[in-house]
Amino acid sequence: MSAQQLEEVKVSTLKEIQLLNMVKGHHSIITLVDSYESATFIFLVFDLMRRGELFDYLTEKVTLSEKETRSIMRALLEAVQYLHSLNIVHRDLKPENILLDDQGHIKLSDFGFSVQLQPGERLRELCGTPGYLAPEILRCSMDEMHPGYGKEVDLWACGVILFTLLAGSPPFWHRKQMLMLRMIMEGRYQFSSPEWDDRSDTVKDLISRLLVVDPATRLTAEQALAHSFFRLYQKEELRTFSPRKSFRVLIVSVLACIRMYSRYRRVRPLTRDVLARDPYSIRGVRKLIDGCAFRIYGHWVKKGEQQNRAALFQNTAKIVLLGLEDFDT
C-alpha cells in the first residue's frame, strides 16, 4: 500500500473508533473496550463474542423460527433506532456484521462504512454489500441528478436480513450480478419457496413494508418496532443467574420427585369387593394372571414374528365371534 492509502486507512479507522465510542453502552451494539496504536498497527479490543457471526449460525441452522427471528430482529432494530437517533447511518448491515454472545444475544459490529450525518446532509457514495444495497444507493451511482440517500438504507438492509433469516436465502439473488441489481432496483422478490408456507402473514407484511423501493414510504426503525410482528409479543427479559433461586428450584424438584416416587410405590389397600369386581385392574393381580396363563397355555400359542404377549388378552374381533356362532349351530 502507498503512503496515501495507509493514511486513508488510518483516518478511516480513527473515525470508526470515534463512532464506536459514541455508541458505547447500548446492549445490542458491540462495545469497544480499548484501542492501542503502534508505529505500524492500530489494535481494537472488543467484547468477546464466542458464538461468532449470525451468518455462520444461519448457515448451520439453514432457517430460523419466527420466535428466534423476532428476538434477533427486535434487538437489531433497537440498535438501528439508537444509531439513527444520533444521525448515524451504518450502511453495511448484514448477518456477517451481527455477532452472537454465549446466551445468543446479538451485537451489531463493523462500523467501517458508518457515517454521522450533518443536518440536511445526504450521501452519494456507493458502499456496502451488493445483496443488501438499497435501490436509492444504486440509483445514486447511476444518476448524477439523484438527491442522494439517508438513514432509510439501513431499514432496507433490515428487511433483507429478516427475509434471509426466515427463508435461508436472500430475497435478491442472481448468479449474474447485473440482473440481481436490477431486481433490487425494481424491488422484485417472492414468497413462493416452500419455506414460506408455514410463515405468518404478519411477518410477510413487515418484510413488504421494509423492502419498499421508495425510501419515503419505507418504515422507520421506530415504526418497524411498533409493527404487530413485535407488538403481539412482550419483550423477553434477560434472565440473570441467581444461585439462591437455582438452589430453591433444585430442592423443590427433588422433593417433588421423592413425593411422586413414594406415591407410586405406596401399596394401596385392597378390599374383597375391588378384587371380586375387577381383579384385572390391579397391577399385581394382572401380572399374576398373565404369568399363569402363559405358563399353562404357552405351548399352543403361536409365537410368530409379529405376535406379542398382549395379543392373547385382546378382545376377539366381532367377525370371528359370528363365525364361531355359525360353527356351533
Give the fraction of residues assigned to helices: 40-55%
Number of domains: 2
Radius of gyration, CA atoms, in whole angstroms? 33 Å
Tell me how many strands there are. Answer: 6
> What portion of the residues fall into strands of 2 or more residues?
5-15%
Shape: elongated
Give the name of the CATH architecture of the largest domain: Orthogonal Bundle
Helices, by number, come to 13
What is the highest CATH level, the class of the largest domain?
Mainly Alpha
Widest sheet, order of strands: 1-2
Explain what this protein looks like in three dimensions.
The structure is a single chain. With 329 residues, the chain is mostly helical. The protein has 2 domains: 50-231, Transferase(Phosphotransferase) domain 1 (Transferase(Phosphotransferase), domain 1, Orthogonal Bundle), CATH 1.10.510.10; 240-298. The protein contains 13 helices and 6 strands. The strands form 3 sheets. The chain has a two-stranded antiparallel sheet with strand order 1-2. A two-stranded antiparallel ribbon has the order 3-6. A two-stranded antiparallel sheet has the order 4-5. A hairpin with a 4-residue loop joins β1 (32-37) and β2 (42-46). α3 (66-85) packs antiparallel against α5, α4 (135-142) crosses α6 (177-186) and α5 packs antiparallel against α7 (201-210). The relative contact order is 0.08. The model is unreliable at 301-325 (pLDDT under 50).
